[in-house]
Write a structure and sequence with these properties.
single chain, 241 residues, alpha/beta, Rossmann fold, 5-stranded parallel beta sheet, two-stranded antiparallel ribbon, 15% strand
């Protein structure tokens, strides 16, 4: 399943992506996961993140534009893709904070390209693309900001409502959402419950191969694959036969 996760900071996108990555790993399926679009890139070293915050705006814009474009090919070429933010997050955060001297974002994001990126994916006719809009109540966002603050927080508390509306609007306009869209509200749900909701809601959008992967019986702990009379089975490691 090719998932594009979008939504306001603290909604729970990264948590869901990590759970889905583990879900596929338990079924021994390779995953291409990219949760590094928010400035500064969370996958960089601490020193590199600190430097990225202070890059000139034109350098940030070019870096982000290049990686946004590059991920069109990622979506096309990998069967299990988990991307957080992509161009939608970039558009909204540069719109809100691009002229804020205390924000790592830059002004003048090229908004005209938003639908172009999506059209290039759409025209490739790859299967099971799902736009996952992750949200939570204003109160839940505020509580998470307080209880588990991010080192490089992007959003401002006073902008929560307006940001949520912009994410909703972008999802409504997105060509990807026309292929398949899921809205997840994580306010009163555990991460596991949100994962179950995502898997259930995505069933009408996935391929038969993906459905077969989900139907695999996977034992707890390490396991191995065996065939008995042509039937594929998964059994706990060391219990063959």
């Amino acid at each position: 399943m090719r998932c594009i996760f979008v939504g306001i900071e603290y909604a729970g996108k990264t948590t869901l992506i990590n759970l889905l990555k583990e879900y596929y790993a338990r079924r021994r399926q390779p995953v291409h996961m990219d949760d590094h679009f928010t400035i500064p890139d969370s996958t960089l070293s601490p020193s590199s993140r600190e430097e990225m915050v202070n890059y000139p705006d034109d350098v940030k814009e070019r870096m982000q534009r290049m990686q946004i474009q590059y991920h069109i090919e990622v979506i096309r070429n990998y069967a299990h893709v988990l991307i957080s933010g992509w161009h939608i997050e970039e558009s909204i955060y540069s719109e809100f904070y691009g002229n804020d001297p205390d924000s790592p974002y830059y002004p003048n994001f090229w908004h005209a390209n938003k639908r172009t990126h999506e059209a290039l994916v759409h025209e490739a006719r790859v299967p099971d693309i799902v736009l996952v809009h992750v949200t939570a109540s204003d109160g839940a966002i505020r509580e998470r900001m307080t209880s588990d603050p991010h080192r490089y927080q992007i959003i401002r508390e006073g902008d929560i409502g307006a940001l949520k509306r912009r994410f909703e609007e972008e999802c409504d306009q997105s060509l990807l959402g026309k292929r398949g869209r899921i809205d997840l509200d994580t306010t009163d749900r555990t991460p596991g419950q949100s994962l179950d909701e995502l898997l259930l809601k995505s069933e009408p959008m996935i391929t038969p191969g993906e459905l077969a992967i989900r139907a695999m019986a996977v034992p707890d702990g390490d396991y191995e694959v065996v065939y008995e009379n042509g039937v594929r089975k998964t059994v706990p490691a060391g219990r063959r036969g």
